[in-house]
């Protein structure tokens, strides 16, 4: 079994950096209205990952065909990192904070993109974290371990907070991912005085509710916005534009609890297809906005743009 390690990720990035030299901060922001909310998708750049990390238990022929259809025929692929910014009344709410400067050189572009668009990051009042993986959490601090948003309130699911702080974080992950635990604890320690923990299902503010979506990590959550048919910011529940939807039962290596993650994917896909809610996918092709349809006994993602 291939193991997801920071060393492997960095090696993959170094090997393909020349092929992906376009500046990640050149991606324009994507903004739309949803009910009472203004939603903006901001690129944090992209990750460069070994293709072998996708769907380790999928039949090789079927997996290869889906990867080819997605234009991913090499040993590595680009995984977009799309961050959601929500304007709700006087609040400016960020969902996840990206990679920062210590994970991959092709990521960590959130603040550059906001600045280029004329958005003052100091206006952000709340941050909701879907989970504690590097590309979602490590952007909370700068190169000196100081808070990037010292005035914001940080909202973390209690189950997720307790997992990374507890012994299960080291016992429950391969030794090669020890750096993920160290990084999570470093960033959580930095925001500790400004953290508000919540239980999955709680509202963060009027019309913005959290949803339990465990499996990718033990306390992973998604975020639902009211209005119309609804909108769900999915975090890392649905991460590949073809494989995740056609075969939610296939298991990517990054999932902490694979069987639970597969059940969560199926449950969320059922909900999205039934409700026709808008989906924002963190790792789907930028801007990651679309809907879900049933197809051939499974599902497909229909991009909005």
What's the short story on this structure?
The chain has 305 residues and is an alpha/beta fold.
Please provide a written account of the structure.
The strands form two sheets. This protein has a seven-stranded mixed β-sheet. A seven-stranded mixed β-sheet has the order 8-9-10-11-12-13-14. The chain is built from nine helices and 14 strands. 47% of the residues are buried. The protein starts with 5 loop residues before the first helix and ends with a strand. The longest helix has 18 residues, at 258-275. With 305 residues, the protein is an alpha/beta fold.
Shape descriptor reads globular
CATH class: Alpha Beta
Tell me the quaternary state. single chain
**Biggest beta sheet summary:** 7 strands, mixed
Structural class call reads alpha/beta
How far from one another are the termini? 36 Å
Considering the chains and any ligands shown, give keywords for the structure.
alpha/beta; seven-stranded mixed sheet; 305 residues; 9 helices; 14 strands; Metallo-beta-lactamase, Chain A
